[in-house]
Every structure is written in structure tokens, then in C-alpha cells.
């Protein structure tokens, strides 16, 4: 395995997050401990009160931008960036056509190459529901993924804790990357794509476990006064769900979350579908997990590999981006609404994902 824990965890990743507030906050706080500023031999008088005032203004702006972003990422919200006109919507479909309508074109592009499948879980294999603990996939979908994994190397890449996503999928022959790719494990049993005898296990954020645990407890305590808020421990990251929180309470919730994570400059905040996600500032995401898995499967420097990544969320964009940059395979965004995306194709919902996977299985069966 070329990738090591050290090179995975050697810096901050500022690309995909909503913002990197804790770092900025720490920097501004440190001003209080320094002597007065001196310029050209003269003291610049920056009073403590003024600094505190600035900090308050920054903090309010930050919360406002979080809440704006929470609104903008809700497709049915009037302030959503997805509320596009019909014209825009059809132009979006031209650039991200349905992977079902263009199935033949996709197959042509993969000719002579090994297709490798990467599947996000929530919103891709299972429909989005209010209670994250009840996001079950259908038996039909499970049977389809099982058949898929018999014909192509297949990985589940999820923001959830690996054990939890496994308890939903329950297929031992797959690769699993939980906690947004920070917890990768190879097939427990009989996959013909399993390489060697050694089980793959990669956890680039293991040193963050105690911190995540602590933050998880603090977030539960802090947000318990917000009706509908739910904190989910995803092992190497934490989710704060606001799907069931009244919009009037979103600002309050954002403040509660910020009041906890501002103490942790090594954690950052990203957003998913009605969820705030708190995770380590390591250079690791679903895109890196995809590259790691390709390497584990023996396709590191191959030109004859065709990775297909299907996902519905902002965090899946890291994987779509990698595929674009590699010029190999492509991403498929699962969405009913036009969205800014690095994916090349689209599918509207998990039902369509299942149809697409079934067609792939059938095509492979006929072309063995
Ligand atoms: O990468 P994923 O597998 O898509 O995980 C991302 C988050 O998915 C889950 O939350 C989402 O699905 C829930 C169930 O449908 C829904 O209630 C929630 O609003 C969605 O954000 C999961 O619970 C999170 O921990 C993951 O981060």
C-alpha cells in the first residue's frame, strides 16, 4: 500500500469544508496574549474591548453564513441555490444527462476496461428519511448490490461509521469506507477481487478518536435543548442532524455547534443533507478513499480501469473531482434538482440507481 498514515495526516484540508472557523478563531484569540502592536516606533492602540467587539461581529457573520448555507442546501427552500428556472434545469440535464438514458454511451466508454463501482449509502442506496437510524435499504437493492459485487469490484463509501453502514448493507463481499473514507476495510469473505491474504484496514485519523468522542459528548449535551436535533457518532467524525429542527431554531443550533467546535482547531465543519458534519482537518476525504481503494485493488497506475462513483451529497464531490482529474471513469450525481457538481451524469433517486445497477449486471452477464 503506497499511502501511509503519516502522509494522509500531515496537514489541513481547506478545500471541501463549509469553512475553517476554528483555525481563524484560534488565531484571533492569540492576539490577546501578545504585547501591544508597534508600528514605526509608535504603539497602535487596539483596545481589548474593540478586539472583543470585532470577534463578536466575526462570530455573528460566521453563524449567519452557516445558516445561509444550511438554507441554500435545502432543495425545497425558497433561498435554495437549486431553485432554478425550467430553462436552467434543462440545460443542467444536457450537461449531466441521465445515466439510464445514456447507458449505451457509458458502456462504450468503458470498453476494454475494468469497471470498479463506488457507492455512497444514504440517498444513493437508501432513501433519505427523518430518522438516521432507520435508513434501511430495500431487500431488492441489497440483492442488486450483491449481484453487482459478483461481477465488479464494489465499495461502499459513506459518511457513517463503518460498522453502522455495514449493519444496513450486510454484504460481506464488499469493501467499506466509513467515516467519509477515514475507516477502510476490505471484504471479510469470499470476494474474488480480494487481493492477497492480508485484510485491508486503513484508519488515517485514528489519533482523533478520543477527541471525536469528547466532542460527540459535548455536542449531545449542548444541543439537547434544541427540539429535533440529533447527534450521531460516526467514529472518526460526528454528525449533527437538523432535518427535524424547526428552521427558526437553526441559528441557535449553529451557535451551539460552534460553541463546542471553536475549542478544537484540529476539527473542521462540512455540510451534508440537513446535517452539519464535524471531522478532523486531515487531508483525507471520499476522493482520497477512492484512490486508496483503487490502489488496494491493484489499479494504482492502470489505464485500463473505469471507476464509477455514485453519490448524492456534497462530500461525494471530492470523489467526483478525483475522477475528473484522473480522466478515468466518471461520477453520477443522485439528485432530483440541478446542483453544482463535478459528476458527469445524473440519476434522480435510489430507485433509478437500482435500475442502473441492474442494467450493468445484466450487460455484464450477457458479455462475459
Ligand atoms: O455519505 P453518506 O452515506 O451519504 O452519509 C452522509 C450522512 O448520511 C446520513 O444522514 C443523511 O441520511 C439520513 C437518513 O436518510 C437523513 O436523516 C439525514 O438528514 C441525511 O443527512 C447519516 O445519518 C449521517 O451521519 C451521514 O453523515
Overview in brief:
This protein is 39% helix and 16% strand. It has 368 residues and is α/β, with parallel strands linked by helices.
Q: Report the order of strands and helices.
A: HHEEHHHEHEHEEEHEEHEEHEHEEH
Low-confidence stretches: 1-44
Instruction: Please identify which CATH superfamily of the largest domain we are dealing with.
Output: HAD superfamily/HAD-like
Helicity, in percent? 25-40%
Task: Give the helix tally.
Answer: 12
The assembly state of the depicted protein chains is single chain
Q: What number is the mean pLDDT?
A: 85
The proportion of strand residues reads 15-25%
What's the domain count?
Answer: 2
CATH topology category name of the largest domain: Rossmann fold
Report the strand count: 14
| Overall shape | globular
Instruction: Please report the first level of CATH classification, the CATH class of the largest domain.
Output: Alpha Beta
Classification by helices and strands: alpha/beta
Major sheet: size, sense and barrel closure? 8 strands, mixed
Strand order of the largest sheet: 7-6-5-4-3-12-13-14
Radius of gyration: 22 Å
Amino acid at each position: 500500500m503506497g499511502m501511509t498514515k503519516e502522509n494522509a495526516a500531515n496537514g489541513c484540508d481547506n478545500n471541501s469544508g463549509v469553512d475553517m472557523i476554528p483555525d481563524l478563531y484560534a488565531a484571533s484569540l492569540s492576539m490577546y496574549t501578545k504585547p501591544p502592536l508597534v508600528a514605526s516606533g509608535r504603539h497602535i492602540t487596539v483596545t481589548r474591548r474593540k478586539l472583543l467587539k470585532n470577534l463578536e461581529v466575526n462570530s455573528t457573520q460566521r453563524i449567519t453564513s452557516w445558516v445561509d448555507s444550511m438554507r441554500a442546501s435545502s432543495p425545497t427552500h425558497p433561498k435554495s441555490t437549486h431553485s432554478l428556472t425550467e430553462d436552467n434545469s434543462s440545460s443542467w440535464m444536457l450537461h449531466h444527462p441521465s445515466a439510464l438514458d445514456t447507458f449505451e454511451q457509458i458502456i462504450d466508454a468503458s470498453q476494454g476496461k475494468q469497471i470498479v463501482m463506488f457507492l455512497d449509502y444514504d440517498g444513493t442506496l437508501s432513501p433519505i428519511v427523518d430518522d438516521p437510524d432507520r435508513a434501511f435499504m430495500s431487500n431488492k437493492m441489497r440483492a442488486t448490490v450483491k449481484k453487482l459485487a459478483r461481477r465488479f469490484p464494489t465499495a461502499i463509501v459513506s459518511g457513517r461509521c463503518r460498522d453502522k453502514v455495514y449493519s444496513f448493507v450486510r454484504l460481506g463481499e464488499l469493501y467499506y469506507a466509513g467515516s467519509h473514507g477515514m475507516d477502510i476495510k476490505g471484504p471479510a469473505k469470499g470476494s474474488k477481487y480480494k487481493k492477497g491474504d492480508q485484510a485491508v484496514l486503513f484508519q488515517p485519523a485514528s489519533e482523533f478518536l478520543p477527541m471525536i468522542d469528547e466532542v460527540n459528548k459535548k455536542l449531545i449535551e449542548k444541543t439537547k435543548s434544541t427540539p429535533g436535533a440529533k447527534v450521531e457518532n460516526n467514529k472518526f467524525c460526528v454528525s449533527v442532524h437538523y432535518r427535524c429542527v424547526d428552521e427558526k431554531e437553526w441559528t441557535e443550533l449553529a451557535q451551539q455547534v460552534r460553541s463546542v467546535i471553536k475549542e478544537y482547531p484540529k476539527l473542521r465543519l462540512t455540510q451534508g443533507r440537513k446535517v452539519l458534519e464535524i471531522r478532523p482537518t486531515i487531508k483525507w476525504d471520499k476522493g482520497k478513499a477512492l484512490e486508496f481503494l483503487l490502489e488496494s485493488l491493484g489499479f494504482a497506475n492502470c489505464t485500463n480501469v473505469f471507476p464509477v462513483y455514485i453519490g448524492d451529497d456534497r462530500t461525494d464531490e471530492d470523489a467526483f473531482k478525483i475522477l475528473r482529474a484522473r480522466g478515468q471513469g466518471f461520477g453520477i450525481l443522485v439528485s432530483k434538482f440541478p446542483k453544482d457538481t463535478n459528476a458527469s451524469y445524473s440519476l434522480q433517486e435510489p430507485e433509478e440507481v437500482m435500475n442502473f445497477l441492474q442494467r450493468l449486471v445484466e450487460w455484464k452477464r450477457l458479455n462475459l
